[in-house]
Amino acid sequence: MSYQAITIVGNLGGDPEMRYTPAGTAVANFSVATNRKWTNADGTAGEEVCWFRVSAWGRLAEVCNEYLSKGRQVMVVGTMTPDENGNPRVWERNDGTSAASFEIRAATVQFLGKGNGGKPASSAGESAADEIPF
To answer: How confident is the model at residue 123 (pLDDT cuts 50, 70, 90)?
Structure first.
């Protein structure tokens, strides 16, 4: 048996993009930036930003689309969704440089910071709408 899960905390890079599958299932996609800061040995500041593409499905997608917006801090727990070869999605940008995307299928999205008191919107066994306090 094997298992994988990923947890990230970061800020939305833009408003969620909502769509529906042909079967009527809601899907919300949004990007989340995480950052790590440190001080180098020479005293200069270092920073690393990593972007993740998140997809939320069903009721969780609808709640994310309704309450999330660019800049909002979130915690996402989910699984990595690799390409057909088990790797991050890789593509070539318009300028000819290579790019890669880490993609997560959200199981839980917790809204952090101001806006809803940090209550979670979860697709695991509970109605996400019941968890929003307003």
So the answer is: very low
